[in-house]
User: Which sequence fits this backbone?
């Protein structure tokens, strides 16, 4: 077995609290992935197709020929 | 302030890490630098994909991917022998000016019936292109929006389920089929294309993009290669936006090169008076889940939004959130020569680069 040692910096309490507040606000606005996934699975509803995403934004608007 | 964190890894894990670190060109560099590089790759936002889109992507792969592959295999012979949607591109004609050509995309959202848009269109002298979503075809033809009146008439299908065949299984479709051009994805169910073909609809193929970005081993790239094995040229590949309405908007400008695209029946949402069971089941009427209408989860899953352009409220379900966010994103990013006019008079499609107007005004103003 190899033992690894890492130095970690403690985040200040202030930073943590601020981050929690931000997350709280975001959660109020956005549906969490778990909530969404749970509903989709349970509902049995289905859509037509999926949205295509790419790391090349221009590809997302379609390709003349492939 | 700092502390030391201690943990143990096996020799095998260490050897793997050393090997990958070396392969990635970080052999001589600090471990911290390499870890940061890896974290950046893992967590940096690669795409515009939202959390909802990630869930949907997983759901589609789990439920439908095998059908797509199977449908493609069964369609391939026809794809080789029938036309490419590229053949519909008018820009080879040097006299064609995309800025002077318009299309109306007809969806089957509730606003079409509510505002009698099909009757308005049937009684108009609109001279542009008609692109009818498959689900709207029978109603459009029955209302007098026919290829006899509008000779440049297309129908589009993207959904891969065989249930779509019902949209082509109707005497009125048989009556007009020979005058309609059908634009179909290579992964639609072959029973659907069989019905369309039987009705006399001439089929033009294109690819639906979904995993092209994953490289040569992606289904999009492999299937394109299989098509090109027998066809001299490849097929166009479109962003479907997850549904036939958005696909039709893309087809209007990307394939048919219409600079002005009008939308009717593209609500991507429910009216307030829609029964809850339809909203929860995305229109299937089958309710497999119980949701407390007063819960915060319900509000997030089915937000009610105000459309200031049409002064109305509408309700989105998860699928409509998924579709509408994507469509609005793509309209905002579309080429500057594309103008999108939403004449749905309802729904949730408004925002950047979307001009909203009444359909009657659209017909008066953009009659070409």
Assistant:
């Amino acid at each position: 077995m190899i033992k690894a040692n890492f130095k970690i910096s403690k985040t200040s309490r202030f930073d943590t609290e601020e981050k929690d507040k931000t997350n709280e606000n975001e959660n109020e606005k956005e549906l969490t992935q778990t909530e969404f996934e749970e509903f989709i699975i349970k509902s049995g509803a289905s859509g037509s197709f999926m949205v295509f995403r790419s790391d090349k934004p221009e590809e997302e608007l379609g390709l003349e020929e492939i | 302030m700092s502390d030391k964190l201690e943990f143990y890894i096996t020799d095998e894990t260490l050897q793997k890490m050393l090997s990958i670190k070396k392969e990635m060109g970080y052999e001589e560099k600090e471990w911290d630098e390499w870890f940061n590089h890896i974290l950046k790759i893992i967590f940096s936002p690669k795409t515009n994909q939202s959390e909802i889109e990630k869930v949907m992507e997983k759901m589609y792969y789990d439920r439908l991917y095998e059908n797509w592959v199977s449908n493609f295999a069964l369609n391939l012979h026809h794809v080789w022998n029938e036309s490419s949607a590229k053949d519909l591109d008018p820009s080879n004609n040097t006299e064609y000016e995309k800025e002077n050509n318009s299309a109306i995309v007809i969806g089957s959202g509730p606003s079409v019936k509510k505002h009698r848009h099909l009757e308005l269109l049937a009684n108009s002298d609109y001279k542009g292109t008609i692109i009818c979503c498959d689900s709207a075809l029978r109603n459009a033809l029955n209302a007098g929006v026919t290829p006899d009146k509008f000779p440049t008439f297309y129908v589009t299908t993207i959904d891969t389920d065989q249930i779509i065949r019902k949209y082509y299984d109707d005497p009125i479709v048989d009556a007009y089929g020979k005058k309609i051009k059908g634009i179909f994805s290579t992964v639609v169910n072959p029973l659907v294309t069989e019905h369309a073909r039987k009705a006399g609809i001439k089929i033009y193929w294109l690819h639906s993009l979904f995993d092209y970005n994953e490289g040569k081993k992606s289904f999009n790239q492999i299937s394109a290669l299989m098509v090109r094995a027998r066809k001299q040229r490849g097929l166009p590949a479109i962003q479907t936006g997850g549904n036939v309405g958005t696909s039709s908007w893309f087809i209007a400008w990307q394939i048919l090169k219409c600079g002005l695209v009008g939308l009717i029946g593209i609500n991507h949402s429910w009216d307030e008076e829609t029964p809850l069971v339809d909203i929860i089941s995305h229109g299937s009427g089958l309710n497999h889940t119980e949701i407390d209408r007063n819960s915060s989860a319900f509000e997030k899953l089915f937000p009610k939004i105000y459309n200031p352009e049409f002064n109305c409220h509408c309700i989105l379900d998860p699928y409509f959130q998924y579709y509408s966010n994507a469509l609005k994103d793509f309209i905002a990013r579309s080429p500057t020569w594309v103008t999108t006019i939403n004449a749905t008079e309802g729904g949730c499609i408004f925002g950047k680069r979307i001009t909203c107007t009444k359909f009657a005004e659209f017909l008066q103003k953009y009659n070409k």
